[in-house]
Predict the structure.
Amino acid sequence: MTLHYLLGIDTGGTYTDAVLYSETQGILAKAKALTTRHDLAIGIAEALEKVIQASGVSVEAIGLVSLSTTLATNALVEGQGGRAGLIMIGFGPEDLKRDGLADALGSDPVIYLAGGHDVHGTETPLDLSPLEQALPELSRAVSSFAIAGYFAVRNPSHENRVRELIRAHCPLPVTCSHELSSKLGGPRRALTTLLNARLVSMIDRLVGACENFLTRRGIDAPLMVVRGDGALISAAEARLRPIETILSGPAASLVGARHLTGLADAVVSDIGGTTTDVAILEGGRPRLDADGAVVGGYRTMVEAVAMRTYGLGGDSEVRIDDRSMNARIDLGPRRLVPLSLAATLHGQPVIDILERQLRAAHMGRHDGRLAVRTGVPEHLAAGLAAQEAALFARIGSQPVALDQLMTATSQLATLDRLVARGLVHICGITPSDAMHVLGGQGQWNAEAAELGLRLAMRRKNGAGQPIAAAPQELARRIVDRLTRQSAEVILSAVLPEAGLTDVNPARSLLIDHALRREAGIVRFALSLDRPLVGLGASAPVYYPAIGDMLSVACEVPADADVANAVGAVVGRVRATVAVFVTAPEDGIFMLSGAGDGRRFTDEEKAFEAARDRAGEAALEHARQNGAVDAVLALVEEIDAPEIDGSRKLIEARFIATASGRPRLAHGE
């Protein structure tokens, strides 16, 4: 029997992790490298080289490479992504008001075309002329296209024709809604398609960086990507459907948590640089969200773990409200580059900027803040307004202080738009800097962290006093705030399980008393009914205090820092296909989904054809994603009520799921 080793990778907002794993020996080696967002290949190559060297395993023995990532999740939480052109077929402007589509679209362009289909797949004629007229200019203003047609899940022909037109005129990526979901609900499907289109270039760069490294190192093994429900898909599939990788990292962390702790029931909280992800393990499996993943405030049509994602992490922005008597500190949701990390990456110039600001007689409103380009490809800057382009031109690959960059207050909003586009990073103080000052972390430049905190503590509270007497005091307040906000987000994720959907832990006086253990005649207490598992590189320094605040046993496994990478290599391939049968009139049965529509005059024959099509399509999809020995399961949902004494078929759904182990290189 050939011994195969599995290589797991997790690319997060701050770190890229790698593990080399054997089913018989467990983790052989693990390594970390900074995620280099400007060129993902650098961080990936560094992490993989480290883990291969540490393990001593020959690259010829690696049988599978599997990747999880939080990049797509982080991009949606932070409102980042490329500019996409949305093509709506059979919809009108009023449909933008549904499911948060208008908010998600923002200033991105939208084109409305007459056309679409009804629930049975019958078409309204398609008019391509508005798109033909707009396409020359539109193709220069966006980085991708999203197409959503009315009832396209029942008949995708109009979406396909629009895609063919776009591809004939420009090489930009195109996403069609029928390829992402078989569920009804046009505006939400359009939202999912729009978000997918924005993520295409990011995931393409990530997968490409992995593939290039594997080729260069002579690793001839399948490359898989973790989907949002914890299943594995091929790299090619991930490139087409990057939206399915939202919650990829969190899903992998749940699989990894189960593997590392052996716990079947737990609340799992994974803290990264950008986000904290909270989910529930029950009976050894992640709980799934049947209504679709919610990320960045948008409910998508992507089936994923029932994960709550919050903009809170080690690299969260520290926001100080100095108007109150005691100066309130809040964290997130935006990620900053920690000053300690900025100084590690860019050297003495960062220290010089902070020291210059500290020598000034008076505090400046932008002290301790720097801007730097992310280094993403230039074409992703397409469509910048004149003010945005002018400001972007003044920001380079070396950090520039905001007090020297900003010449007018209005430029702050312009800078925020560049950050939202993923073109610029803001550097500033974060909990990671606070931990460097307190000695809890030491991997980056502690001098820059202390200088940043010294600048911040010059601010005065509502009583006219400095908000802290020493950097260590301010650092402790920041870390205490992270502990409290972490406890609140964990409670926000689990309280709905108890039916308390209207309780906001951040505003509840009773929860505040319980978390602070307020003394008095009446004492309030709360806890969880299962252990808390803390994951992430910084979990050992943060989660013991969080567990204490929640009065719950907290387990931080030894390999908590690479749980996502572990979860990436122990998953399975799974593919689900839905086929539908409807009755537009008595005695006529229309089959749709997973292929061209078919018309039947016999209900049972239509049902049998639907079962066969769903099963064959699921098995084929699983095989295309690298599954071997796939097992098929079929669920039938038939909506056929009695109306006036006779049975009336509304809709029959045939949902087939095929799952199997991923295929390894060099045979089984």
Q: What stands out?
A: The chain has a mean pLDDT of 89. The chain has 20 helices and 33 strands.
